[in-house]
């Protein structure tokens, strides 16, 4: 028989443990969703999942693609959001020779008419960063065909940081291309000049046929994400450029007719850095208004800024700084209500959100979730779902999983 006083002690201890567990759960909930406008949406797709990518097509269908890893096997999968919950995931492709990277994650696009293209990266040489962009297509989303190549240069070099946009009845793809960084074949010289990373674009149909290809810029930063959207005068791309003296500011170029315009500096941050910061821009358009968000370090201080163009990228306004003093970048942007832009970024371990317009009117910022500054946490994603925003991010605190949440945009008012 257990003594009465010992039973009492056990009950008290159990009560303390339950109370502590409840406090921990409340703290985790507070850390992850600090605003009443947030609704967590369960997402389950197996064990080790990461590298999420969100997109909304022209018919307002919302999709999430991601990578699931099982030992050396990687699977590219996707799920559709039905407005309330995620549908069971569908496998696009799998392989063992893939290049799975926290920053260079796969992309997914739909034309809104049940045609799909998805990308992944496959190793093409012994070097760590030698890989190709492989594309898969699907007429319906169930059966996936491919792969086919985004590029056909045949070099064992880096090809990645792809962006997609539905353009007319085709797909425009933009990527960083390392074909010029390779040594020339059959050379006996001990020191051979190695060229620069370039940015290229190509136009595909949904059958995988390439209709055009361009080089946009012959010297760009090596591993920052690209951004692409369609404005009223055509496509516009934003990317981190690279000058001869290692200034790596954001540049833009527009496709006018069949020719890309000469690269133009978005804003002269004059960020001189000898290595790639792995922090690219984000961009979205609504009518003639285009908004671009980016991270830079100005005079040794980290900043996240946003700039608007109200004429499709022909002219640019002045930048507005939106961070709170300690940003690490990893920006995303979404326009869902006229000229207002919603910008997410990471402020240390917090995923933050703010609303901004071209007049500089800004809402208060809110915390969407707690994340990690480590590479395994990747880049938080954001897309529109109706008048709301849908978020996805990698939770690396206990293994690797993906969490998603819906945010009510009517909860944030602009302030002059």
Give a structural overview.
By secondary structure, the chain is mainly beta. It has two domains: 1-32; 57-372, 6 Propeller (Neuraminidase). It is 7% helix and 47% strand. The chain is built from one helix and 29 strands. The chain has one helix at residues 4-32; strands spanning 38-41, 48-56, 62-70, 73-81, 90-95, 108-110, 115-123, 131-139, 145-149, 159-167, 170-177, 198-204, 210-217, 227-231, 234-240, 250-256, 259-260, 264-265, 282-286, 289-298, 301-309, 320-321, 327-337, 340-347, 350-356, 366-370, 381-385, 388-395, 401-407. Strand 6 (108-110) and strand 7 (115-123) form a beta hairpin. The longest helix has 29 residues, at 4-32. Residues 1-34 and 189-193 have low confidence and may be disordered.
Topology:
Blueprint: H1 4-32, E1 38-41, E2 48-56, E3 62-70, E4 73-81, E5 90-95, E6 108-110, E7 115-123, E8 131-139, E9 145-149, E10 159-167, E11 170-177, E12 198-204, E13 210-217, E14 227-231, E15 234-240, E16 250-256, E17 259-260, E18 264-265, E19 282-286, E20 289-298, E21 301-309, E22 320-321, E23 327-337, E24 340-347, E25 350-356, E26 366-370, E27 381-385, E28 388-395, E29 401-407
Antiparallel strand pairs: 1-29, 2-3, 3-4, 4-5, 6-7, 7-8, 8-9, 10-11, 11-12, 12-13, 14-15, 15-16, 16-17, 16-18, 19-20, 20-21, 21-22, 23-24, 24-25, 25-26, 27-28, 28-29
């Amino acid at each position: 028989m257990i003594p009465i006083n010992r039973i009492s002690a056990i009950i008290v201890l159990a009560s303390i443990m339950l109370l502590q567990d409840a406090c921990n759960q409340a703290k985790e909930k507070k850390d992850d969703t600090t605003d009443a406008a947030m609704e967590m949406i369960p997402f389950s797709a197996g064990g080790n999942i990461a590298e999420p990518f969100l997109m909304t097509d022209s018919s307002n269908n919302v999709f999430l693609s991601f990578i699931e890893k099982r030992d050396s096997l990687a699977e590219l999968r996707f799920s559709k959001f039905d407005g309330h919950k995620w549908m069971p995931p569908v496998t696009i492709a799998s392989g063992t020779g893939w290049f799975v990277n926290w920053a260079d994650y796969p992309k997914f696009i739909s034309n809104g008419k049940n045609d799909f293209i998805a990308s992944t990266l496959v190793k093409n040489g012994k070097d760590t960063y030698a890989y190709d962009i492989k594309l898969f297509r699907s007429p319906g989303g169930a059966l996936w065909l491919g792969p086919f190549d985004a590029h056909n240069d045949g070099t064992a070099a880096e090809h990645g940081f792809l962006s997609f946009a539905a353009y007319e009845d085709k797909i425009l793809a933009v990527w960083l291309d390392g074909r010029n960084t390779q040594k020339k074949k059959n050379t006996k010289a001990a020191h051979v000049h190695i060229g620069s990373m370039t940015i290229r674009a190509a136009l595909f149909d949904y059958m995988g046929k390439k209709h055009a290809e361009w080089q946009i810029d012959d010297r760009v930063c090596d591993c920052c994400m690209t951004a692409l959207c369609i404005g009223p005068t055509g496509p516009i791309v934003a990317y981190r450029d690279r000058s001869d003296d290692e200034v790596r500011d954001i540049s833009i170029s527009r496709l006018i007719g069949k020719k890309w315009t000469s690269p133009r500096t978005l804003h002269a941050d004059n960020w001189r850095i000898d290595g790639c910061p792995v922090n690219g821009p984000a961009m979205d358009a609504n009518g003639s208004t285009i908004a671009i968000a980016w991270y830079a370090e100005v005079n040794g201080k980290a900043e996240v800024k946003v700039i608007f163009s109200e004429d499709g990228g022909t002219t640019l306004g002045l930048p507005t700084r939106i961070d709170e003093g300690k940003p690490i970048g990893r920006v995303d942007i979404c326009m869902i209500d006229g000229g207002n832009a919603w910008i997410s970024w990471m402020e240390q371990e917090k995923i933050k959100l703010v609303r901004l317009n071209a007049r500089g009117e800004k809402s208060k910022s809110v915390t969407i979730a707690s994340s990690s500054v480590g590479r395994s946490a990747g880049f938080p994603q954001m897309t529109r779902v109706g008048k709301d925003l849908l978020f996805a991010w990698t939770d690396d605190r206990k293994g690797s999983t993906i969490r998603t949440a819906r945010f009510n945009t009517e909860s944030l008012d602009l302030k002059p």
